Amino acid sequence: MKQFGYLIIALQILLLPALAQQTKKVYLSGTGGDDAVNWQFFCTAGSNAGKWTTIPVPSCWELQGFGKYNYGFAKDSMRGKESGLYKYTFDVPASWKSNTINLVFEGVMTDATVKVNGKSAGVIHQGAFYAFKYDISALLHYGKKNMLEVKVDKHSANESVNAAERRGDYWIFGGIFRPVWLEVLPATHIRNTSINAAADGSFAATVAATPQGDSLVATIYDHNNQVFGSTTGHKTQEGFVVNARFASPVLWNPEAPYRYSVTFSLYKNKQLQHNVTEHVGFRTVELKQRDGIYVNGVKVKMKGVNRHSFRPETGRTLSRRNSIEDVQLIKDMNMNAVRMSHYPPDDHFLDACDSLGLFVMDELAGWHGHYDTPTGTKLLKEMMQHDRNHPSIVMWANGNEGGHNRDLDSLFYALDPQQRPLVHPWELFNGIETQHYREYNYGIGNYNDGPEIVMPTEFLHGQFDGGHGAGLEDYWEKMWHDPLSAGGFLWDFADQGVLRKDLHDSLDTDKQRGADGIVGPHHEKEASFYSIKEIWSPVYIGRREITPGFDGRFTLENRYHYTNLQQCKFNWTLRRLASGQTKSGTAAAPDIAPLQQSALQLNLPADWGTYDVLQLQVWDSHDRELTLHTYPIRRPAQVAADIVSLSGNNTISTSQKDSLLTIAVSDVKLTFNMNSGLLTTVSNTKGDIPFAAGPIIVEGTNNFAKLSRREENGQLILESDFHKKEAYNTIRWTIYPSGWIKLDLHYFPAAYFSNYVGASFNFPETAVTGVTYMGDGPYRVWKNRRKGVQLGVWNKSYNNTETGEYPWVYPEFKGYHANLYWAQFHMKDNSFKVVSATENIFLRLFTPAWKTDQWHNYEPLFPPGDISFLQGISSIGTKTQRNETTGPMGMKNIYYDYEKEPSRALSMTLYFDFSGK
């Protein structure tokens, strides 16, 4: 045991020199919002101003109860007046005296004036989203306490910085919002590195170092920490240049994000002075004009989203855990790309993109305004030094929507050894057309019809429930099949709701401005989350109806760029929804190369046709679900036959007063208007059921005429006559001795183009407590957003939430629900059931809050009435586009039949059970 102890001590002594050569990173703050460190703080204006107190660092001071909340569009009377004064005391060991000590800030909003022990650390730093450092070696008291003072101005003294950063469509914060640390380096050290690890195995690096270093070795390790290769550097005036070629590296791509690590070892007189280790990915990005963007020789399409650095409680102050959460959610939607809107992100976010696999477009800040050239040059250099070695970054963006300083374009290439493509979001530049929010059919001789690569850096604006999933299927199919499309980036990832301490901890999205996300402020998943996931699945399953002759085969298309579908897993499940019985199995993954098609074979049991649905689930090699499809086996008429009881011994009694016919059967009493054919009242022994005033034909004419009554086989039938010109819509009510009521409706829409097609009833919203239904769910749908829902039995309690608004409760209760089989409507002390025997009926539940925008593009349309049974529903627009300009699915329903013949009418059969059982 003693010998083992001596061995450990000996190993530690041997390792000490090597450990001493590593860069020491000593945090003065926390590493993120979840472990912040208190500093002394004084705010000069706004809430809690004028007194010394403490504040956690890193943080945005508004989220800690200081200053004033500002959205970028708002006119701010305090602009230029709000500052924060920070103080922090820290120890410096005497043993550090021979080292170089840098004070590093990863991000300060916005102007930072730094003093150490009362002396200036250097020039004021202007620009919020960039890491900067000061060499404070000569300012420190070694072996003693030291005082750090930072004055932070929320708005910059440089107007170009305000134009680029402070006047945008997002929340504006102040403070030291990213970590602060001391970088402790040996006297002879590496300053920074610039790396290009290419797909052909070539490896080049420029290593800036202090002049005392006389030799450099670069050693590359694989993910098992085994040496992949090693080479030496060539001495230059600034440091060293490394050039080598390694055979057959494993390449990085977002589907298989393989990373190596490279350790640069700096020597002086053969003695190791300093080690610096970086993660690298071997990969090459090429822009081929009039063709596409290639990564590792493969033309790629961006399935991307714009992402702000944001959390409601901490603003732009994030942790590594937050970054991993965001990347995981983005990948869960089958996305492969993310745009840094509208500024460079935290280092740990880029690290998560590297390790988990996302293409990244990194962006120099600029929102309709840009930095002046001297300031932009400085900040661009800081961004490049901080970010350029990340393999996930495949493109750069110079500002946004007019915020492009063209004088800086050449610097992107001068500072990037990988020569990644540069774009100007919102304009045609460098052969890439990136215009925002273009209509589906936009362009005459340009855009989709032009010679340039098309890649909108923002499209399908997701304000409230419009955009994102609505219209995406039309856009994506066009993008996927267009050889000059490089995909695009949805706007945007998450609703930006700030937790307002001055408003009793309520969440504020600045009305509609921050409600743009696919997920809510706390990552609540909207319906579009699941639509995007299905539409962007790399395993594309061809449409298939499950008929009695189904042979278990599905057509698959591999929409991966790099992955064979043999690496995926395929599971199937048969379900009986009433009993909950299931039977499951797996299918052999077919050998399908990227961009190829073939078949998947399911070996189903002989009794598969007795189940209600077949579910097909696909997983990738990392056990991430790619897609889930639910196929109906039994149709509504079959399920209705199991539920509806038509026979019985109950007497059907009637009485009539004027035009009102009252019918009693079992425990149910109904009243019909014999002139109009409409149901007017319903009750049972538990009380009234206020389901009435229907069916009203929506966007049509209620011209039911000459309603007659007759008895037939113990049933009571109320039926209207058909007249080609005056009464071409017909209705038939059948009352069965069992107490069930059947409605047969035959009708013609009034217009060639219709927003919705079907019939409505009145039912007060205050009377409903919830609904249980069999159909597609649990989320609502629009005509141009049908993907992402599954056929099943769903329970939904009433809520009045709207997408993108407090309380962010999903799924929403109100709206259109597809593929209705049956629905049980729950009241406080009563209930009733509706069963459809007709396929493809939409259940409309009430009317969501009316929303619009300044252009009246986003206006969700609903027919009169409260509960509807529809055969066509409306689409939805976005903040920037009307519904009909988002593609064919966004157009109105089209129905034309000049000849009003009964055989040509639309028809619908519904059954009602008003017994309350």
UniProtKB/TrEMBL annotation:
<keyword id="KW-0326">Glycosidase</keyword>
<dbReference type="InterPro" id="IPR004199">
    <property type="entry name" value="B-gal_small/dom_5"/>
</dbReference>
<dbReference type="Pfam" id="PF00703">
    <property type="entry name" value="Glyco_hydro_2"/>
</dbReference>
<dbReference type="Pfam" id="PF02837">
    <property type="entry name" value="Glyco_hydro_2_N"/>
</dbReference>
<dbReference type="InterPro" id="IPR036156">
    <property type="entry name" value="Beta-gal/glucu_dom_sf"/>
</dbReference>
<dbReference type="GO" id="GO:0030246">
    <property type="term" value="F:carbohydrate binding"/>
</dbReference>
<feature type="domain" description="Glycosyl hydrolases family 2 sugar binding">
    <location>
        <begin position="53"/>
        <end position="185"/>
    </location>
</feature>
<comment type="subunit">
    <text>Monomer.</text>
</comment>
<dbReference type="GO" id="GO:0005990">
    <property type="term" value="P:lactose catabolic process"/>
</dbReference>
<dbReference type="InterPro" id="IPR013783">
    <property type="entry name" value="Ig-like_fold"/>
</dbReference>
<keyword id="KW-0378">Hydrolase</keyword>
<feature type="domain" description="Beta galactosidase small chain/">
    <location>
        <begin position="714"/>
        <end position="835"/>
    </location>
</feature>
<dbReference type="InterPro" id="IPR017853">
    <property type="entry name" value="GH"/>
</dbReference>
<dbReference type="InterPro" id="IPR014718">
    <property type="entry name" value="GH-type_carb-bd"/>
</dbReference>
<keyword id="KW-0106">Calcium</keyword>
<dbReference type="Pfam" id="PF02929">
    <property type="entry name" value="Bgal_small_N"/>
</dbReference>
<dbReference type="InterPro" id="IPR050347">
    <property type="entry name" value="Bact_Beta-galactosidase"/>
</dbReference>
<feature type="domain" description="Glycoside hydrolase family 2 catalytic">
    <location>
        <begin position="286"/>
        <end position="365"/>
    </location>
</feature>
<dbReference type="InterPro" id="IPR006101">
    <property type="entry name" value="Glyco_hydro_2"/>
</dbReference>
<dbReference type="InterPro" id="IPR008979">
    <property type="entry name" value="Galactose-bd-like_sf"/>
</dbReference>
<protein>
    <recommendedName>
        <fullName>beta-galactosidase</fullName>
        <ecNumber>3.2.1.23</ecNumber>
    </recommendedName>
</protein>
<dbReference type="Pfam" id="PF02836">
    <property type="entry name" value="Glyco_hydro_2_C"/>
</dbReference>
<dbReference type="GO" id="GO:0004565">
    <property type="term" value="F:beta-galactosidase activity"/>
</dbReference>
<feature type="domain" description="Glycoside hydrolase family 2 catalytic">
    <location>
        <begin position="380"/>
        <end position="502"/>
    </location>
</feature>
<dbReference type="GO" id="GO:0009341">
    <property type="term" value="C:beta-galactosidase complex"/>
</dbReference>
<dbReference type="InterPro" id="IPR006102">
    <property type="entry name" value="Ig-like_GH2"/>
</dbReference>
<dbReference type="InterPro" id="IPR006104">
    <property type="entry name" value="Glyco_hydro_2_N"/>
</dbReference>
<keyword id="KW-0732">Signal</keyword>
<dbReference type="InterPro" id="IPR011013">
    <property type="entry name" value="Gal_mutarotase_sf_dom"/>
</dbReference>
<comment type="similarity">
    <text>Belongs to the glycosyl hydrolase 2 family.</text>
</comment>
<feature type="domain" description="Glycoside hydrolase family 2 immunoglobulin-like beta-sandwich">
    <location>
        <begin position="189"/>
        <end position="283"/>
    </location>
</feature>
<feature type="signal peptide">
    <location>
        <begin position="1"/>
        <end position="20"/>
    </location>
</feature>
<dbReference type="InterPro" id="IPR006103">
    <property type="entry name" value="Glyco_hydro_2_cat"/>
</dbReference>
